[in-house]
Amino acid sequence: MPAALHQASVAAVLPPIILTADNHERLGHLVDVASDGMAAEADFLAREIDRADVVAPEQIPPSVVTMNSRCIFRDDASGRDRTVTLVYPEDEDVAAGRISVLTPVGAALIGLAEGQSMSWHTRSGESRILTLLQVAFQPEAASRQGADLH
Question: Which class for 117: exposed (0-12), middle (13-18), buried (19 or more C-beta within 10 A)?
Fold first, then answer.
């Protein structure tokens, strides 16, 4: 599909997203207390939280990005793949690949499943699209696997 058509189709239809009840609650609180300097990011995250399907942690598919998940996504504009861990703002360390859910990319990733694409806007207002390629680690799936070993 040509890039312009792909971009238009993603912008027109938001992919369904899933959040765990724990993530939904904590992210809702985070949006409520976000500083004025983060208003646009908090608004984007709030919209994502509002439209998400909420499930118990044990019901979230392992292919969905949750908080503290490590994932690989492609920036569809550049074609570049990035591996990041999605974290709360206090744990952000961009140099170490830990990005905050209160960044445009972080808010776009939360709740996405492998293969889904999501449009987002850079802080300078440029429209971009990312595609989630893989969830390499998800805490809820790791927890279930640990429970299966006992």
Answer: buried
